[in-house]
Amino acid sequence: MARNQGLQPPRGTRDFYPDELRLRSWLFGHFREVARRFAFEEVDAPIVEHADLFIRKAGEEIVEQLYHFELHGRHLALRPELTPSISRMVIARAGALRFPLRWYAIGQNWRYERMTRGRKREHYQWNVEVLGEPSVSAEAELIAAIFTLFDRVGLPTTAVRMRVNSRALLEETLRKGVLRDRPEAFEPLCVVIDKIDKIGAEAVTDLLTGEIGLSANEARTVVEGLAVRSLDEAAARVPDGSAAAAELRRLFELLDAYGVADRVAFDASVVRGLAYYTGVVFEAFDAGGTLRAVCGGGRYDGLIEQLGGPALPAAGFGFGDVVIQELLSDHGLLPELAREVEAVVFAVSEAERPAAVRTVRRLREAGRAAELVLGTPRLKRAMQDADRAGAREIWVIGPDEAARGVARVRDLESGEQRDEKLPDGRS
Ligand code: HAM
Q1: Which amino acid residue places its CA nearest to atom 2 of ligand 1?
Q2: DSSP class of residue 6?
Q3: How high is the pLDDT of residue 427?
Q4: In the CATH scheme, what is the homologous superfamily, with its name and number, of domain 14-330?
Q5: Between 300 and 427, the higher pLDDT residue
Q6: Do 343-421 and 14-330 have the same topology in CATH?
Q7: Segment 142-180, tens digit of pLDDT
Q8: Residue with CA closest to ligand 1 atom 4
Q9: Ligand 1 pocket, 279 CB below 6 A?
Q10: Domain boundaries, given as residue ranges, for the chain
């Protein structure tokens, strides 16, 4: 490895210097606050898992992009997403858990992606799941949580739109035709048609004939169906009494009650790229259409059983940290976050350091963020540093103050000064 290369993080990964970490913590704070308001409990899992947990055979990108390795005869992988780990956790305790569960996690995921704006090789996700609830009241709650987040970070209501579809509806549409003799083709077919935004209708048609084995006619019918943008039109393509269409109608009714229905639109081209979805699927996009999905999710009623657990309905979403920051930046909404130092305590010489230490202890015990100047620079330098750190006050203890048993406190904004009594030496 070239020496200078070793100083860069691997391509597509990020270091978080204090400024960036403050921003990340700010965002995670909003994730946690929305989760709290929606009564979701936080969980966590290891970032390294058995590779088998993630390996599926439907041709998904996420599996091709897996960071995986052999170690002591074990095949391990860095997680590319959190849903399989959460499913594993549920399976391990399924007998003892009371459903439905409302769980969320915030964690780093790894995918060896081809990078574009908003797409990296590691990203953090706010991953929220409802486990054990079969009705679309789960999806409605999840979508409402997403909009609450958008509102909290200050995005105008027109900045993001949610596109919703149902894989169950697509399956009903194709059941008697394309899928009649090959129901098992449905998962890989979804994985292929998910690519339409990225590679275009023609390339998808080619994949449907080449990889999935549809006739040219069948492939064309499938691709044409993806252009449907109204639920009524989509419902007209399935037999009367379609359960999937009824679910979508119910979902829109509930979203109306949450006050977000006008920010959500039916879109038959949304199918999602992960094989495990079985029902409602949704993705949120910036209204300008310049970024990849800000978040996405849906119902995955088969995954837990496929992983060896009970048949447990589930729905959830993943909301990344990268795209939302791009979007906030485009809107000029990234906050300026200063360091959180309230007071700086400065001993003019080493003789006053014990008094300065007792003072800073008292401030910290009182819950204030207080920095002790560790060396003995000149007062001017200490004041400049304190100012730069965003501190409101500097507490100066020199020989004169020590002799009088006080600290000279200067308000760095107003310039006003006052004396504060020093804590006594025996405390
Ligand atoms: P996903 O669509 O693969 O779904 O990822 C969810 C979100 O994570 C994306 O919308 C995007 O914000 C972010 N994301 C994904 N890959 C990258 C990347 N390479 N760079 C930056 N951000 C990225 C899932 O992961 C599902 N597990 C979501 C889910 C939970 N479905 C049900 N429950």
Answers
A1: 296
A2: G
A3: 45
A4: Bira Bifunctional Protein; Domain 2 (3.30.930.10)
A5: 300
A6: no
A7: 999 999 999 999 999 999 999 999 999 999 999 999 999
A8: 318
A9: no
A10: 14-330, 343-421
